[in-house]
Structures are given as structure tokens and as C-alpha cells.
Amino acid sequence: MTEPTARVDPPPGVVSAGVPVDVAAAEGMEVEARSQWSYARRRFLRHRLAMIGLVGLVIVFGAGALAPWVAPYTFDQIDLTNVLHSPTTVGHHFFGTDEIGRDYLSRVIYGIRTSEQVGLVVAVASTLFGLIMGAIAGYYRGWADNLIMRMTDLFLTIPVLVMLLVTAALLGAGNQWLITGILAAFFWTPIARIVRGVFLSLREKEYVEAAKAVGAGDLRIMFRHILPNTLGPIIVNATLTVADAIITEAFLSFLGQGIKPPTPSLGVLVAGGQQFPQDWWLTVLPGLVLVLIVVCVNFVGDGLRDALDPQQRRVRA
Amino acid sequence: MAEPILSIRDLAVEFRTEDGVVHAVDGISYDVYPGETLGIVGESGSGKSVSTLALLGLIPQPPGRIASGTAMFKGTDLLKMSKHELRTFRGDEVAMVFQDPMTSLNPVLKVGYQVAEAIKTHYPKVPDGEVKSRVVDLLRLVGVPNPDVRVNQYPHEFSGGMRQRAMIAMAIANSPSLLIADEPTTALDVTIQAQVLEVLKNVQAETHAATILITHDLGIVAELCERVIVMYGGRIVEMGDVHTIFRAPRHPYTIGLMDSLPKLTEDEEWLRPIPGSPPSLINRPSGCAFHPRCFLTQGRARCHDEVPELRKAEGTEHFAACHFSDELIGHHSKFSEAVGAAGGQGSN
Amino acid sequence: MLTYIARRILYSIPVLVASSFISFTLLTEAGDPLANLRANPRTNSPQILHHLTHVYHLDQSLPVRYWYWVQSVFTQKFGVSLLTSQPIWPDITRAMGHTLQIVLLAQLISRVLGVAVGIYSAIRQYSVFDYTFTTVSFLGYAMPTFWLALILQILFVDIYLHWHVRIFYTSGLNSGVTSSTWSLDRLQHIALPVITLTVVSFALYSRYMRATMLDVINSDYVRTARAKGLPERLVIMRHVVRNALIPIVTVSALSFGGLLAGAIVTETIFTLDGMGFYFITKLNQLDIYAVMAYLMVVAVSIVVFNLIADVLYGFLDPRVRYD
């Protein structure tokens, strides 16, 4: 047997014991460090439909928010000489007028404003509430979990519309903020379920144990360690809730149990137009705006979902 | 040397992605001889799985594309076959065992049904009773206990190791001439790994099928394979028979791989990983793909400028793709003694 | 399995009792059930009011009244409406029949179409078909049913006024004489409501089916099936669709529970004598016993169908086992 010859050693400067070699520098490439959020942001911005939706929403919601400056008239300016005029360029009545001569475009814009207020507030309120409830249920389990789960089950066993109608009928509808409150009270359950699910699965993970071992308190663990993992589905859900809330409010108002006139909401407007089937713009136009809002929100929601939770279809090398 | 059962020449597979074109496999050529077990070793991303998936036409063609190459199997080029023709080969003459047994079986169909499906697809005329008894025999061959009961069970009632055995049974159901096992034990516990490897050995002995065993585990290669191919960055960097390569590797990457393994019989203070990380397959380093991490290059320009060819060492069937592999002649890996002692192939 | 079913039924009883009690409380507190009668000069004589108060136990405490109501559920089939003094059950069953006809028709069409389109969209992903139907689904899903219903109504009223031909009717269940359930007249009347309900449902199902199909198509066991040499058609039918259908079927079964609630909005717009219309009308009139009857019927239906959905899921997916 020959003697083993000297092993070829790595050149000096390159230590093998775990020190990384700057391959990139060796190749002259620049490597950027990127955080998780910037990856998500990149993916989102590349999603064409989401961008279209976002632009659409900015325009529509922007118009609503800036209603006093954008609308040609106020929403209750009566002009009995100009009743039920179809859409025209005369006098800037691009959407026509209604049965007492109010400019319909303005009413629709103010309607957008009402709807967007309802939608956004419901989404934020229900998300926050659902987050807290879900976190408590998922983290502490026990009787709190049971109680909260029974509550969500209750909401599952009856069609939401039915419950809403009964509640609205009982509490006396009409006030925009009361309706917002009622809607928020019904919309928190799916979020609570999602959050609870994440908390349930993550509280057993090793890093939670590690945090506890280091002496981290419950609140810190919940906020710092587990909560960030819920943000993805929560953001998506909250976005879609905006559309859901707007549509539900429209339904309620349409059936007479939601917001009542003269406050215009898109649902109120469509309901009002029902009595004049000949004057198509009264029903079609606010409805179209509703559809537009929902489609745009759904696009944005899809884009967010792709960005925050991408499904990688990789073929393993 | 007998005629190879499979001859691949200049196979190149690429994928079109958002970030650019991924050159998963970049012009590889090798042969597989009947009855032998050939190992393909490499890191994730080396292209080892993709090359075999391409053979069977299992690469999704919109993002993927077979850019060039031929794969002659018993006289026909697999890469030029129509989908329909390829279908008759898949599962019959050429079969594949996949990596993750937990997800590779359909959860709502019985295991026996899925194994039988392999037979019935290619031999629909065989009566059901015969198929069923063949399935039970196959399960028994791969070591599934109580095969006649298990054949009617669902995958979730099987353990991970048993599922992998069922997958193997499925693959050999029609006595293929070529069996491809893609990291068959990676997803299993070490003890189960050993069992499944035993099964593969038995199966090989029984069916005399040529086997391509893809893995990143050199230990498995040492145990099961006669020849081995080492892949890196979509290319073959070393090829030859197992004993020679283990005893005297001639590519810096192979040396790095072996050096990074801890040796049980000696006291080692530090682990010696290969510095750096695997190359991006979109922006591959120019010239030799390994040179940014190579200890042999010593900054020499040739490594950066020229792609090394797979060259044969004199008088052997040992190939290496390194400009300076001659400098490694006489280099013995730390496994030399072990291989020399166990191999019985003369250790001069 | 049987013990599981028995347990579920047992659990649902307290839930039903609880929800019925809560609903009853809310409704009775909502207002005076005799308000309409009081307002009407023909019926507001003190004797009538006193008599009614006594007969309907309106002077008793809440739990007692609740108990009387529970009794009336079982002995008198939900009893009698406080306002009309008509028995409730025949009304509700009639409304149920009408609703079921419309809703089941719509669900059948939308599901069959939705599943078919979803499967094809997934197989031919990124094709013109796929993009077209994805867009259609988006729009259909985004459209509030009341708006779609109104548009259809306006459209067909327009057609009638301009061309004097009635293709589809825009209100009511029939024209004048009570027609039989499947007469042409009835079909012409329910066509628009069915279309309205189908569109949204179809959009939902096709999107959902497409998503599950795509999920399954990329899974490992489908790759195994292909590696065995199975023809693509069999891979899709036997492995992909079979697995993709499981969540769809369960969601489908779950939604059946809510069907009986009726399409409140659609029935209102098209003035159809169904469960939804019944509910809204009675709610606005605060006809308590009638509303309670409606709520109970719906709740039971949901509980039953939730159970059916769960059992079905156990049949379809062998990984799920109930003890």
C-alpha cells in the first residue's frame, strides 16, 4: 500500500470551518438583502389585475371621499323643473336626474361615500375585534375558546341575511353608524376563526417554547411571535370584507332595513329607482358602480393573496 | 461491455420563469447498462431529478422545455416520442419511484387499486383475479406485512416506509427494464431508510432491472451502486465506478462532498463544508460552474473562462470535468482505506 | 357512525332551543304584536283587543309565553298567526314548495354548469376559454343579486313594451289562474328568478371548482398516476376530479341547508310567493308566530343539512373517520 500523499489544502484565507465565502463578490455580482415584506410588495405590484383594481378603487373611493368637491351638486338639491331627465351633458347631469330633480351623479357620488365609509369601518372594526377574539380563543383555549367558538357557531347556523334583517328590524334601522355597528358585529366571526386556527397551530411550535423559556410574557409572545403570521390571511380577509360589507349594506338598504333615505347609499338609490322601471339609469347606474367596486376589491384581494401567500409550483432539480 | 440500455446524449432542459431562463440541465451525456445500478449524486438544484423526469416526459412543457438532446432507449429516442407512445413506456418498460411517499399516493383510493392500476393500464386483458394476486405477491416481495389484508387499505393506514414500499411495488409491477428511483429514502427516518434500501436491493436482484438511483447521500451510493455520476449546476462533473471515485476522486467538488462527511472511525475537530452556496441556474458562473467555491482553482483564469469538458482519465472509465484534474492524481479521499479494505479491488 | 349521528342530533336540540328562545325574546320585545290591529278602526274595540290578549297569553310573562309557543309548535303545527288568525303551517308549506322549485332548479343548473366549466378551465388553463370564464365568474360573483334581478326585470319589461311579446314574466308566479307546478306559464314566470340565482351560484362554483382542480392537478399523486402511464383523460377523471369534487360536494351539501331560507331579495323583486317573501312580509308586520315558524324551519333545515354534509364527507374521504 502506498503512503497517502499530502492532501491538497485550501488556499490560505479560505477557512473551511463554516465561514461563508463571498461568492457573489468573487463573481462581481451585487446581492441585495430583501425583507419578506418587500418581496410581497414586489409580487403585488406585478399583479396586473390587482393594479387595475387598485386604480379603479382609488378613482371610485377617491371620488366618494372628496364628494363635496367632486360632485357637481349636493345630493339633496331639488330642481322640480328637471325631473327624471335621462343622462345628458346639459347642466352636467351626466347621470340624469331623479324623480324630484336631484342630480343623480351627485347622489351616486355621495352614495359611494356612504358605502365606502360603511365598508371601511366595518372591515377595520370587525378585523380588530376578530383578531382579539381569535387570539384569545386560540392561545388560551379552555373555556374562553369554547365560549367564543359557540358564538361563531351560532352565526353559522342561521343565514346571515336573515339574522341581519331581524336585528335591523328590531333595532330600528336608518342610522348609517348603527348599521355599521350591526354589520361589524356579524363580520368578525370568519376572521376570528382564521386567527384562532393560526394561533392553535403555532402555539405548539418550538420558538414559542423558546420564548417562554427566556421569560417572555404571554402578550409579548402573542404579539411578537404569533401575530405576524396571521397578517397575511387577515389582510386578504379584511380587504374582501370591505366588498362584503358594502354589498350587505346595499342589500339591507334595498330591503328597507338598512340606511334610509334621504341619506344616499348605493342600495338606497337602487331601491328608489325600482319605482321607475322606465328610467333605467336610476337602477342601473348605482348598481354598476357597486359591481365596479366589488370587482376592483376582489382583484386587489386576489393580488394580495398571491403576494402574501404564493403557491410555488417548483419542479425539484 | 454490453450494449447500454439507455444512452443519453447532450440532454439540455430549461425552464422559462419570471426571473429568467433556468438552465436546469445543461448538456449531459451518460449511458446505463442492463442490470446495473447507477447513482446520480448532487445537491438540490444540480439537475439530477430534472434529467430523469425529462426522460419520462413528466416535465410540464409550458414552463419547461427540452432544449436539445437524445435519449436512446432500446433503439428509440424517448425525447422524440409522441405523448401517446411515451405513455406506453411509462410504467411498463421504464418506471419511476418518487421522493415523498406521504403525498405520492392518492389518498382516496385503496393501495391495492393503485398498484393494480399500473398493471391494468398496460395489460388490460389480464383478468381481475390474476391482477389481484399479482398485486399481493408484489406487496409481499417489497416486504409489506399481511399483504392480503393491506391490499384493501387506504394510504393513510400505511406508515411512511410501507407507502414507499408500495410505491416500489407499483413501479416494478410490470417488470420494467429501467427503474428510476428519485431520492426514495430522503423523506424517511434513517432506520426506515435502511429497510427501504434493502427492498431496493432485493428488487434489483429479483427483476434484474437497470436502476438509476438519484440521491444526495453518498452513503446510499456506496451501498447500492456500481457506477456513479456526480452532477453540479446542471452538468456532470465526474463519472465512473463507485470504488474508483470513492478511493480517488478527481474533481474538487467530489472531493469537497466527501470531505464534508464526518468519518466515524476518526476524531475530527471541525466539519469541512464546501464554502459558498449552490449556483443560481439562471445566472450561472461563467466557465466552470464550480470555480467560485473551488479550492483547486487558485484564481486561474482558465476556470473562469472555459467550461471544462468531461475527460476520461487514461485507461479507465473514470471521467472528470476539471481543467486541472490531473493535479488530483494520487489524491486519496479520506475514505480510501475503507473502500480499499472493503472493495477487495486491489488498492495500489 | 350511527352513534356520531345520534350525538350530533342530540347536540343540536339545545342549540335549537337556545336560538328559538333568543329569537322569541327579541321579536316579542320588538313591538306590540297587536299594533296593526289597534291602528285599524275596525278591530280596535276594547273587547276584541282584550279577548285576543287573553287567548294569545299576551298578558303573561315572557317564559310563559315562550312555553305556550313551544306547545303550539308541536300540537298545532306552529299555531296560528296573531294578525290574520290563519293557521301558519299551510302558508309556510305552500311558500316552501314555491321556493324549492325555483331554488332547486337554479342550484341544479348552476352546479352542473359550474363544475363542468371549472373542470375544463383548469385543464385548459390560460386558454381563451379559461380567461373568458374567469372574467365572467368575476363579474357574476361581484353582481349583487338584487341588481341583476332588477336589470332583468327592466330589460324584459322593455321588450314587452317595445315588441309586445312576453318572453319571460317579470312578477308573480303565474298569470291569474293558479297553474300547475310545471306548466309553461309557471316556467315563464320563474325563468328570470332562476336565471338571477343561477348566475351568482354558477360564478361561485366554477371558480371554486377551478381552484380545487388546479390544486389537485399539481399534486404528487397525480404525477405518480402519469408516471404509471395512465392516459391523461383517466388521470383527470379518476384522480384529479375525484379528489377535487370532495370539497365541492361538501360545500354544496352545506349550502342546501340555507336554501330553504329562500332568496329573500329575488322573491321580493319578482313578487314570488316563497319563503323569502313570506319572511320579509311577516317581519315587517311583526307577525311574531309566523316569523318564529320561519326561523325554526330554516334552523332545522340547516342543522339537518350540516349533518348530512359531514356524513357525506366521511363517505367520500376515507381519511376522515368518525367515532
Structural account:
The complex is a heterotrimer of chains A (317), B (348) and C (323). With 317 residues, chain A is mainly α. Chain A has helices at residues 23-27, 36-46, 48-65, 67-70, 104-140, 142-157, 160-171, 176-202, 206-213, 218-254, 266-273, 281-308. In chain A, α3 crosses α5 (104-140) and α7 (160-171) crosses α8 (176-202). Helices cover 32% and strands 21% of the residues of chain B. Chain B has 12 helices and 12 strands. In chain B, the strands form 2 sheets. An 8-stranded mixed beta sheet of chain B has the order 6-7-8-3-9-10-12-11, sandwiched between helices. A 4-stranded antiparallel beta sheet of chain B has the order 2-1-4-5. In chain B, α3 (111-122) crosses α4 (128-141) and α3 (111-122) packs parallel to α6. Chain C is flat, with a radius of gyration of 24 Å. Classes of the chains: A mainly alpha (317), B alpha/beta (348), C mainly alpha (323). At the A-C interface, α6, α7, α10 and α12 of A face α1, α6, α7, α11 and α12 of C.
Approximately how much beta-strand content do the residues of chain B carry? 15-25%
Mean pLDDT across residues of chain C? 81
| Poorly predicted ranges of chain B | 343-348
How does the major sheet of chain C shape up? none
Please work out how many helical segments of chain C DSSP would assign: 13
Tell me roughly what share of residues is in helical segments of chain B.
Answer: 25-40%
Given helix and strand content, the structural type of chain B is alpha/beta
- Outline of chain C: flat
In N-to-C order, the SSE pattern of chain B is EEEHEEHEHHHHEHEHEEHHHEEH
